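Record type: monomer structure entry
Structure origin: computed from sequence
Chain ID: A
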Amino acid sequence: MPKLLLGIPKGSLQDATVQLFQRAGYNIYVSSRSYFPTIDDDSMECMLIRAQEMARYVQDGVLDLGLTGKDWVLENNARVTTLADLVYSKQSFNKVRWVLAVPEDSPVRSVQDLEGKVIATELVGFTQRYLEQHGVKATVEFSWGATEVKPPVLADAIVEVTETGSSLRANKLRIVETLMESNTQLIANPTALLDPWKAEKIGVLRMLLEGAIAAYGQVGLMLNVRRAHLPAVLEVLTALKMPTISALSDPDWVAVNTVIEERKVREIIPRLKQAQAQGIVEYPLNKIVM
């Protein structure tokens, strides 16, 4: 049986990725003693790879596809095919930012002020290209970690990733510019996509993962209502698409099924009751496939 080789990002995105696959219908089991998680699909094999290295291994064909940040694809100038943007991260469902930051009392106000300065970052290649695009000559040093503590003694500035900016503020750093926004992407080896079996398998996986992402923050609502009160109920509902309305055994009643944002449920349900809806059921969603 042919195998599809899948890279799972090891580190901060690992748990969120495993949860995403579970919502998509795939159970991945990770052992603390192995870099080869098991998956309940005999046609797939998984490997834990650092997100920083994922694009290179997919490019070289060691893996058929993997999940990694757009930032690391650009950092490595990787020749891969981006199949989908999967906007999720370790803390939220928002994109992360790579920012240029300096001490709060630094005179630096723009990237041009870094001429001849030292910048610490893990994103060395991209940062060097960014400086070149702005005509700035500065020293970019690779940072092995704890980048926020390096200014002003070990570096004049840093380029660091942030979701909320809280860590930067805690270290008394000020954001000067945003170099790029990044999110997790599903990437594939271009040669793998030429294989009909792999291409079909990858297409199904992509569809289910995108469906799982689309379902985040959404819930389903089912309810019954008399036909006479249906217009009032439909005025209350804010649906993903038009609500589904089904006839019931009693011709005077209909069932309504729709999808709404979970954060709106606490406002919607009382209004539905006021509109004479009955038997209201809220249920979780794993996937929304368009």
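Annotation 1: Helices lie at 14-24, 51-59, 70-75, 124-133, 166-170, 196-215, 230-236, 265-274.
Annotation 2: The chain is about 25% helix and 35% strand.
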